Amino acid sequence: MTTTVAIEPRGMAHCETTALGVLLRHQGIDLSEPMLFGLGSGLSFLYWDTRAMDVPFLAGRVKPFVLTANLADRLGLRLDVRETASPRRAWDNVAAALDAGRPVGLQLDSYHLDYFTTRVHFGGHVVAMYGYDDTRAFLVDTDQQGGAVTTGLASLAAARAARGPMTARHRSFTITAPPEAPDPRERIVPAITACARAFLDPPIANIGHRGIEKAARLVPGWLRRAADPRRDLPQAALLMERAGTGGALFRNLYRDFLGECAGLLDDPRLRAGHELYTEAAEAWSRVAALVAEAGETGEQGALDRAGALLSGIARTERAAMAELAGLAAGGAPPAAPRP
């Protein structure tokens, strides 16, 4: 027996926004991926390093599921989250929603999914599930992973039960839009200013603009820090550009979000932020290329140039966020969409 929910299985660049897009379109809300990412105040930065890691990790977004919670709160959506230590109850939570005709979001470890192209443990991966039969689950993942895909029920259970960094306890969630949901255009300024304030005033030195400044100091030492530079540095660069980030460590997505907003709001600070994030996105892609080059050639100069670029990126992003934080002082009201 097969149970499926009628959805539009549109894969996107990033896993969490892909799943959100599926669930929101089912509720009649169709937003671009950059708008989903931006309204969820998804942009951030974290320099993460522990002794157990082969090479430090550069994260360009908020923690998994924070984007979803932010977006639901900002748009007045009902977010029904289920977590449990029981695999049986976890399956019942998902099956009940699907049997009732509702797609479900799942947070899990991508390592166990049958279709995943790169087998690495990542407990913050998010997919939308829209059906199942006796042996398979029907999922929507990113374009890179195939969009509408299937995985065995056993592999899905293992992915949901995994424990480790960023994992959740069999987390599943559904979204319900109220009859009178706020106009997303009215929520642009609060989303941008919340993101800017968090970036400008991070709680520790590893986060936000301070984290990028720290990366500028430490990335030049990665040839010595990496366990296997020829393997680890190209992999780090790949994660920045292609591992569901939309390119440039999520800066391409935020650049496009600001560009879309600039077409809706007439504010010079917004246009300035868009221009600065266009510059930052280009620089991040150059950093990734230099990190990969250093791993492939062993050339220290490539990492030195990456460090210098990161210093400039920290200044650029801090200036952009300072402009965007000023929107709270009286951003212009939303304009009618352009034809």
UniProtKB/TrEMBL annotation:
Pfam families: BtrH_N (PF14399), DUF4872 (PF16169)
Superkingdom of the source species: Bacteria
Domain DUF4872 positions: 155-324
Domain Butirosin biosynthesis protein H N-terminal: 14-142
Protein name: BtrH N-terminal domain-containing protein
